[in-house]
Amino acid sequence: MATIYVYMYPLLFSILVSFFFINSLAPVEPSILFSFEKFDTSLLKFDSKIGVYCDAMLDVEELSIKMTNAKKFSGGIVTYQQPIKIMEEKNPKRKGSFRTHFSFSMSPEKNEFGIMFVMSLLKGLPNALTRDFIGVKINIRHDDTQLFGNSDAANHVGLYASTPPWAKFANAADANLVLDSGERLQLWLDYEAISKRVEVRVAQWGKKRPVAPSLWLSVNLSKMFNTQDVFLTLASITGNSTQVCKLYSWSFELTT
């Protein structure tokens, strides 16, 4: 019997090594942190995962969040209440890639503030913009004809990063979109950790995710955020306009 155990130990060791080696090569399964296909009265609960602040309020009939009122300098903020980590010390296979998707509408009026998504080391606005962050803003500007060279360029999508300071802009009219039509639209923001690339796509509600991004930016978010707590915020403000912005759905997942 002793001779049998002598031969079994090396065999067992080889099996275990092979198992852990193969397991280390296995792809990381996507992890959906949250997915709200609609917003209902569960938002009103004390332990709700979504926080609604300032002028933002639940629209029970439309199952949406009305982020601004039809008046000047109205502002609303929606946050995911819990901090997240795009990387984990205990899970080295998690590289920091992620995707967020939300659907929204903006009433027909030019508004240079529009609606903005921000991922930052600090919670809420304007605090989130004082530390490392990545953000995307959808708005209607008066002066984009100088930026893009045509009158349709008022449909403005901007991608921003704090480290290094970067800003890129795209014209939603190139994708046959009118951002302030009042119709429901959707936006995807993807980060691929291996290529260190953030991509933004915008489409009408019900359409498939476009293959080509509306705009992209090279930035190392895995290094920027590492294993620190990160906060997710959506915000809108009317400024000098009376534009009403609505939020219909929001999801976030870690992809690799």
Features:
single chain; 256 residues; mainly beta; Jelly Rolls; 8-stranded antiparallel β-sheet; 7-stranded antiparallel β-sheet; 13% helix
Strand-helix topology:
Layout: H1 2-25, E1 31-36, E2 50-54, E3 57-59, E4 64-66, E5 75-80, E6 98-106, E7 115-120, E8 133-140, H2 144-148, E9 155-161, E10 166-171, E11 185-192, E12 197-204, E13 215-218, H3 221-225, E14 231-237, E15 245-254
Overview of the structural elements:
By secondary structure, the chain is mostly beta strands. It has one domain (32-254): Jelly Rolls (Sandwich). 13% of the residues lie in helices and 38% in strands. The longest helix has 24 residues, at 2-25. The relative contact order is 0.24.
Number of domains: 1
Count of DSSP-assigned helices? 3
Kindly estimate the percentage of residues that lie in beta strands according to DSSP. 35-45%
Give the radius of gyration: 22 Å
Mean pLDDT, to the nearest integer, reads 81
Specify the biggest β-sheet: 8 strands, antiparallel
- Would you tell me which CATH topology applies? Jelly Rolls
- What class, by secondary structure content? mainly beta
Helix-strand topology string? HEEEEEEEEHEEEEEHEE
